[in-house]
Amino acid sequence: MSGLSILAVDDETPSLDELSYLLHKSALVGRVVVAQHATDALRHLRDEEFDAVLLDIRMPGLDGMELARVLARFSSPPVVIFVTAHEDHALEAFEVGAAGYLLKPVDEARLDRVLRRAVPQVSREQPSVAGDVAAGSSSSPAGSRPGDVVAVDTGVTTRFVARSDIAWVESAGDYVRLHLRDGASYLLRTPMAVLEEEWSGHGFVRIHRGYLVSLHDIAELRSEGAHTTVRVLGELLPVSRRNVHELRERLVRDVRPGAR
Q1: Which DSSP letter does residue 220 get?
Q2: Domain ranges of the chain
């Protein structure tokens, strides 16, 4: 992969400059184009192809949500990721097909994490945030109980990741991706259903067919009508309707003030 082509749209110059800077730093990105309003963005989208559009929501004229609805009608729409200071549009964003919802201020680790998850050609690649390739293993170092530590093969070395350091897990084809609190992520060749069963008694809960989350890392649960999201490491993740009841029960039963 030569690098993603990204269009960043934000009417606030400091925010746009910061986002552009982070995108240029990312090893995943090959080209960055910026626009300060939706009309300018549409001109770029008419003349050029982009893998992803990173959008603010509140902009004068055509706002980010309206622009996302326009993009959804394209024959081959780019991936849409919202980058905003406002949490109250997350459910609407998922409804219009957004692949990610980042809260400002954005940092490099969270940006890369969302790009890896949201953009198809990146999610098909196998490297972790550090550029490693993880092929799962069930072995554990001496002194650890099986399951307390996950061994990931990075090609040259084997890294031992403590389950207690993992904030959430997402489905990634034949793999799952482990997301750590320090921003690192690793691929593991293990079915999500296996981790769900084995880790349920260790503070993890399935919130969606694609996500398994540490209960103690859920910073916020938000419900509006039939739609629910949780905030984990500054990212908003969808909760499927059939998982809402169990999630609420587990939060009440298992999470205690000050517990970690």
Answers
A1: E
A2: 4-123, 135-254
> Which of helix, strand or coil describes residue 99?
coil
Name the residue among 110, 84, 121 with its Cα closest to residue 26.
110
* Cα gap 158→140, rounded to integer Å: 10
Residue recorded with tokens 């170092």: 141
For 211, the enclosing helix (H) or strand (E) is: strand 211-214
* Maximum Cα interatomic distance, the chain, rounded to a whole number of Å: 61
Sheet holding 204-208, edge to edge: 185-188, 175-180, 166-172, 211-214, 204-208
Q: Which two tokens stand for residue 114?
A: 């969302």
Going residue by residue through the chain, which has 260 residues, state the pLDDT in tens, using 9 for 90 and above. 479 999 999 999 999 999 999 999 999 999 999 999 999 999 999 999 999 999 999 999 899 999 999 998 888 899 999 999 887 777 788 778 888 888 888 988 889 888 887 776 665 554 444 333 333 443 343 333 445 888 887 667 778 889 999 999 998 877 888 999 888 888 888 889 889 988 988 999 999 988 999 999 999 998 877 788 999 988 889 999 888 888 988 887 776 544 44
Query: Which two three-digit tokens encode residue 178?
Result: 């482990």
CATH of domain 135-254: 2.40.50.1020
For the chain, helix (H) and strand (E) counts, in that order, are: 8, 16
The fold for domain 4-123 equals Rossmann fold (3.40.50)
| Token pair for 254 | 């298992």
At what angle are helices 64-71 and 38-47 packed, to 10 degrees?
20
Residue 128 has which token pair?
């972790």
Q: What distance lies between CA 230 and its chain's CA centroid?
A: 12
Residue type, 50: F
